[in-house]
Amino acid sequence: MNEKTRVKLKDIEVRLIVELMKNSRRSDRELAKVIGVSQPTVGRIVKRLEEEGIIKEYTMIPDFSKLGFDLMSVNFVRFKSGTPEIEIERLRKTARKLEGERGLPYLLVMNGMGLGHDRVFIMFHKNYGSYATVRRMMMGAARGNVEDLESFLVVLNKEHYLPLTLSALAGYLSLEDKRVQWNREREM
After folding, report:
1. Does domain 11-60+165-187 match CATH 3.30.460.10?
2. Pairing of strands 146-155, 117-125
3. pLDDT tens digit sequence for 104-143
4. Which of 5, 49, 99, 146 lies at a CB distance of 3.0 to 4.6 Å from 142, suitable for a disulfide?
């Protein structure tokens, strides 16, 4: 398994990441003002965080329902025990081929654990029919290697308690950063 090493970030780096998660369109000058450092310092930190792969991309999150997606599916997969790694790699290649041919709207595909499953993928669908078609296509590509595939469907064209956004996570990281600072001050 390809394990990623956790990186110890400085307080200023965390604050910069939090601000970029809230709004990555701000200039270095604006960011410097908010986090209390110089503009060149922001530029250097951002460049280093990009080079180290901590900042992967700058993007925005649209209203998916306004783009024509009625559903988001959170799918949990369990491969049959003993499925050889070579077969799992074949499935990955098949999935990439299908994605290239049909433009499957994936948001996330990752290994994991929980609920008796070992893979999760999140996709968007125009309607239930397109979800059902993608599900059949995936099961066909799996050729009997998938023991179970369960889905949770999210209706996107309704009001939600907390829609997909990075601002909520940025708020958590900001609070975590404040807790760390508070603990340091208390120890002094």
Report:
1. no
2. unpaired
3. 777 777 888 888 888 888 999 999 998 998 888 878 777 7
4. 146
